[in-house]
Amino acid sequence: MDALQSYLMVLRRSDLERIGPIDEHYRFYRILDLDLSYAVRDRVGRLLSLNGLPLQRHRHALWEGLSEGDREERGRKNFGRFLKRWDHRHDLAPHGSPAMVAGEAALHG
């Protein structure tokens, strides 16, 4: 698995120590999960996804409280941060352009 787009991630404490702190420049949550995924792949080596867990996703008040334009602008800024950190890493999965952040964020075809 190359990257996870997720509201819930579980990591071993020992892996968190290897990954280091989360980049606090992500003021808006969008793309942070992908940055964390790449950090896990870089420093731990793998990601796993467990499907079918009995989880319920609730509405996201911050997301719903912003206009579409505001969400896109914040997402573009975060995607720029992501590219600045990871764009040189050609051994990781290919990623899209900042324009792909508009609407659903998708890095992989």
* Helix content bin: 25-40%
How far do the termini sit from each other? 13 Å
| Weakly predicted, low-confidence segments | 98-109
Biggest sheet details: none
Order of secondary-structure elements: HHHH
**Number of H- or I-type helical stretches:** 4
The overall strand count is 0
* Gyration radius over CA: 14 Å
Shape: globular
What does this 3D model show about the protein?
- This protein is mainly α and 109 residues long.
- It is 39% helix and 0% strand.
- It has four helices and no strands.
- Helix 2 runs parallel beside helix 4.
- It is globular.
- It starts with 12 loop residues before the first helix and ends in a 23-residue tail after the last helix.
- The C terminus is likely disordered.
SSE blueprint and pairings:
Layout: H1 13-19, H2 32-43, H3 61-65, H4 68-86
Helix pairs in contact: 2-4
Question: What are the key terms here?
Answer:
4 helices; globular; 39% helix; 109 residues; disordered C terminus; mainly alpha
Describe the structure concisely.
The protein has 109 residues and is an all-alpha fold.
